[in-house]
Write a structure and sequence with these properties.
Strand order of the largest sheet: 1-2-3-4-5
Number of strands: 5
Distance between the termini: 41 Å
Strand content: 25-35%
Order of helices and strands: EHHEEEHEH
Structural class: alpha+beta
Shape: globular
Helix content: 25-40%
Length: 134
Amino acid sequence: MSFKIDRVEGAALDLDEVLGVYHASGLGERRPVEDRERFAAMVQHANLVLAARDEHGALLGIVRAVSDFSYVTYVSDIAVVRDRQRSGIGRALIDATRDQAPAAKLVLLSAPAAAGYYPHIGFTRHDSAWVLNP
C-alpha cells in the first residue's frame, strides 16, 4: 500500500479526521483530544503541518511542527495510525519535515513508548531538555 506526503494548512484539515489519527496512533492518550477547541488551535497554529495519505485519500499520519525554517524545527507531534506503523510512514514524515527546512535541526520530546524509535531514524538523545507545564 502506497502513501503520499503533502504540506498542508492545519486549518484546512478535517478536525475529526485528524483526531481519528491521534486516537488510532496512541498519541491521543497524551494530547487534549477531548478538548476540541484546544486541539483545533493546536493544529491550526502549527506553521508546519505534513499529512500522509493513502491512495484513497485516507489520512494515515501527520506531523505538526513549529519552525523558523532556518535554525530549528520543533516537532510537536508525529502520529501514524497503528496498523500502518513500521511501514516507513513515520520516517517519511520526518524526512519530509527536514526537506521543508534542510538547514534546521529537528527537536522533539518523545512519548515514552516511542523513545526507542527515534535513534533508529538518526536522532540523538539530548539530556538538557526542560519542560515548564501550565
